[in-house]
Design brief:
76% helix; disordered N terminus; mainly alpha; 21 helices
């Protein structure tokens, strides 16, 4: 049974993003066409700049979060080492509680540095079907295909021919090629060899002539840096090597290598924790510095060049943005960032009518100091009460603050009560 195969463009959320991005791409292509620029590659560049400009607030938030996370890493490691090898529930709860206290101390969120990054993923997933099937979204490009599609619909043998060619194209699926929309979908994914196969298979001179005209017009609007944005660079590279065309092979590598190089520079500008080899975050960042560019090169070769162009331009835009963001954050200083975080957290907590994070931060600082003193502090106190403080009540922020106060004060409260009773007795006399 024939049907339309579900793609990312048909997913509930991704499909909505794809429609929005397709509408934006259509608007940009029409705008560029009005000033005489009929080029999908240029439209992708302008599109990428606009998208990442709109996402600038998320990028700033991500950079701020990563900076604070880098400052927190030494204290996080101390807590992890303190509870290393202990897997009982009580100990794990204590570790989680100390982690929460540390986050409150800096006004940080465990997801502050990764949520902005995750927010960009729907855009990447939604962009794929837009680039893969531009005629579906961009009316100006659709018109280039329309004369050929009309002739193929009227040609009796076209459905069988297109089905046979489509079997060799990944992710096409089982489509009814007597329907014009499915023909648009297939032709949008055609590579150079597929066009040759179609011209060889049809016997109509009129259709062959229309194919040649369509390919010529598509080459004009899709050509960027000598490569079609709808072509997979690996196909062009393989064909050029087979024909002994060294220049063509070099051109085929431009966009994938550009995507990898710009990705490398972009990742290098990310704030990183200290160089402690035992720091898992530092190891992860070092891995990403080389892993992400390699992935970009791989996808740049194996997916349509338009996606590789998007990755390359997006990395350039991010690099420029991060240079200015880092300069601004360096000028402000980490202490100011933490203070701003605490003020924002205070506003959130004020709405919940709980203890302010600045108070908790002060208490958490004392608690951290006491933890680092360890056994030495316990010996000086001469009492086990100081190290056996537990929560009396629930897990509210006020309970945590009381715990920290008792942790640092030790038996001071009981001493104060004794002094108070003594003064009271004297006053009675």
């Amino acid at each position: 049974m024939y049907g339309v195969v579900a793609t990312t463009a048909d997913w509930p959320i991704i499909g909505t993003f794809a429609e929005w991005l397709g509408a934006l791409m259509n608007l940009l292509y029409n705008g560029l066409s009005s000033i005489g620029i009929y080029n999908v590659g240029v439209a992708i560049i302008v599109f990428t700049i606009i998208i990442f400009t709109l996402m600038l607030p998320l990028t700033i938030k991500q950079q701020r979060g990563m900076r604070i996370q880098a400052v927190m890493q030494p204290e996080i490691q101390k807590i992890q080492k303190k509870y290393a090898g202990k897997k009982d529930q009580a100990t794990m709860m204590k570790q989680q509680e100390e982690m929460r206290m540390l986050q409150q101390k800096y006004g940080a969120s465990p997801f502050s540095s990764c949520l902005p990054l995750l927010a960009t993923m729907p855009i990447l997933f939604a962009l794929f079907p837009v680039i893969q099937n531009i005629p579906r979204y961009v009316e100006g490009v659709r018109k280039v295909y329309s004369p050929l599609v009309e002739k193929l619909v009227a040609y009796p043998e076209s459905a069988g021919i297109l089905e046979q060619i489509g079997d060799d194209i990944p992710f096409v699926g089982d489509l009814d090629f007597s329907q014009s929309e499915n023909i648009y979908t297939l032709l949008a994914r055609f590579q150079a060899q597929n066009w040759n196969e179609l011209m060889t298979a049809v016997s109509s001179v009129d259709i062959i002539s229309q194919i040649e005209e369509t390919v010529s017009r598509l080459h004009s609007i899709n050509n960027f840096l000598g490569i079609s944005v709808s072509e997979h660079p690996i196909n062009m590279f393989t064909a050029s090597i087979g024909d002994g065309n060294i220049v063509g092979a070099i051109i085929a590598t431009v966009i994938p290598l550009l995507a990898g190089a710009t990705q490398f520079i972009s990742v290098k500008l990310q704030p990183t924790p200290n160089a402690d080899p035992d720091n898992p975050i530092a190891r992860q960042m070092r891995t990403m510095i080389y892993f992400m560019p390699i992935i970009s090169v791989f996808f740049g070769f194996t997916l349509p060049a338009g996606l590789g162009l998007y990755w390359a331009v997006s990395a350039v835009v991010r690099t420029i943005q991060m240079l200015f963001i880092n300069r601004s954050l360096n000028k402000k200083g980490t202490d100011a960032l933490i203070e701003e975080n605490l003020k924002k957290a205070e506003k959130r907590q004020a709405r919940k009518k709980t203890t302010s994070p600045s108070t908790v931060s002060s208490m958490a600082t004392k608690a951290t100091r006491s933890i680092e003193e360890g056994k030495a502090g316990n010996k000086e106190a001469g009492s086990t009460k100081q190290t056996n403080v537990t929560y009396s009540g629930g897990g509210s922020l006020s309970d945590k603050a009381n715990m920290v106060r008792r942790f640092n004060a030790g038996t001071t409260s009981s001493d104060n009560k004794g002094e108070h009773k003594e003064k009271k007795g004297k006053s009675k006399k």
